Amino acid sequence: MGYGEVITRSYDRQIDRARVEDLERRCEVGPAERVFLFTDTLGDPICRIRNSPMYKMLVAELDRELVGVIQGSIKQVTVQKPHEDLAKVGYVLGLRVAPLHRRKGIGSSLVCKLEEWFTANDVDYAYMATEKDNEASVKLFVNKLGYVNFRTPAILVHPVNNRMFHTPSNVQIRKLKIEEAENLYYKFMASTEFFPYDIGNILRNKLSLGTWVAYPRGEIVGEFGSNGQIFPKSWAMVSVWNSGELFKLRLGKAPLSCLLYTKSSKLIDKFLPCFKLPAIPDFYHPFGFYFMYGMHREGPLSGKMVRTLCQFVHNMAGTKSKDCKVIVTEVGGSDALRLHIPHWKLLSCPEDLWCMKALKNEKKKTLRELTKIPPTIALFVDPREV
Asked: Hey, what long-range contacts does 118-121 have (CB within 8 A, 24 or more apart)?
């Protein structure tokens, strides 16, 4: 049996908003054997890309039914050292195809149309992120559309609960001014893979809650980093993005182990509070999350500084947000930084998958060289693309 013609066009808020939201509700996010996450875009389907320098959403219609959607954004980033090597990259995200219309070529058609928009805007590389065990996505992008495996970062998740962490008395935590944070990022992270050229716009966005540094108390005299000279021997910094203001998540299905732990921990916490067993929050109702980005450390005691900052962000989420139930961050898969970030293996993803494709012939050789670089270097994950 043949299918009608699939029409791909730009998103029109007036006629598409409700239909895109309905499609989002019907599409699961996450590998089937682990969890299903449903997204609530709070009435703005384009919210995940709205804060990017350039963005576009495409929809696919079949016999007047909206059967697919895809989003894309464009920015300049560092793709390799030194900092002068900037590239224009296009990020592919939010590809959804209605369950009853999969395997009809709709997904590949949407990606190709988005790549045409990238090319028209002089983009060097397209890239996307998916779960490493998402076979359908890997087959589409790698096997069919010519993307290559690039990096396997780790997504680390820690639940927010009522128990506050104690900040060590010998550690000083200070919130930086935006200009201070911007200077520090350019000084210490400008050569980091995928460092965004417009970091200042990210830091000044209303969703960015601030940037904090942690260092041993009493180790320096004066303001941190003043005149670009005063730095302690060990320190760490992190910025926080309130993703929950853009969209909410809801758990649709979870492994049996997760369900059993949730129920048992809540019972123990209720009847035997002396055990102080951390309970998993209720993920079956819409919830928000904080995303930690731009994490950097220096010095022999910097691991402790990182842990202290993570605990500080947890406490901030628990006291200042009504629906923030998890703290999320993403770091390079082989980056030793992950060893110092508190997270639950039950909720985290040890290997996400980033894939890239050169959209210009002269960039194909560079991409081959990039994929050969050992994945031990740091990776900057833009909070606007989470």
From this structure: 118/72, 118/74, 118/90, 118/359, 119/359, 121/54, 121/74, 121/88, 121/90
